[in-house]
Amino acid sequence: MKLALQEAAQAFEEGEVPVGAVLVINGKVVARDRNQREALSDPTAHAERLALSAPVVSSWHRDEATLYVTKEPCAMCAGAMVNARLKRLVYGCADVRYGAVDNAYNLLKGDKLNHRVEVTSGVLEAECAELLRRFFSSRRGGRVVECGGLENRCGGDSTGGSNPPLSATLSNENSD
Ligand SMILES: [Zn+2]
Asked: For a 10 Å CB count at each end of the chain, is N or C smaller?
């Protein structure tokens, strides 16, 4: 997940929404990528989709692969994981609004699709969420729209942290 966070930080530097992904098979990193929607002018160029699509992966068995991604995947990326027959997903922070694993939808855990993906969530959650919060804060003069639900999961109720709760940081926007 630390490698995925490095990719996310790189995306941040490039002006992209900071999400990173790393694909691991048998303990070996076989692909790593970051969100590149703007750079590629491709609305589907999410970090996890790019990592799953890396040419180097084609000769490997994705059904033995674990994908690490810094944010809960969207519906498109969760669908790609089902199609790739990914074995396991590990993600960092929740996406309350668009997450398609545990929040807006539960695409990886239901019985309707023909493949289930093992899921572990909350790994380096605070770091993953903080990067997103900083990005949207810097881009919108303090407005945090896309990850506005994250305060329910990250930072606000942790113990021992030195960061103020997101709800305090976002008080102007946190109308609900
Ligand atoms: Zn996605």
From this structure: C
Q: How far is the CA of 50 from the centre of ligand 1 (A)?
A: 10
Look at the chain and count its residues. Answer: 176
Encode pLDDT of 83-116 as tens digits: 888 999 999 999 999 999 999 999 998 778 888 9
Of 62, 48, 68, the C-alpha closest to 2 is 68
What's the token pair of residue 112? 């309707």
Mean pLDDT of the chain: 81
Identify the helix (H) or strand (E) that includes residue 91.
strand 88-93
Q: How many whole angstroms separate alpha carbon 112 and alpha carbon 97?
A: 22
Q: Which of 7, 48, 72, 130 is an active site residue?
A: 48
**The tokens of 94 are what?**
């929740």
CB 103 within 8 A of CB 94: yes
**112 CB burial (10 A radius; 0-12, 13-18, 19+):** exposed
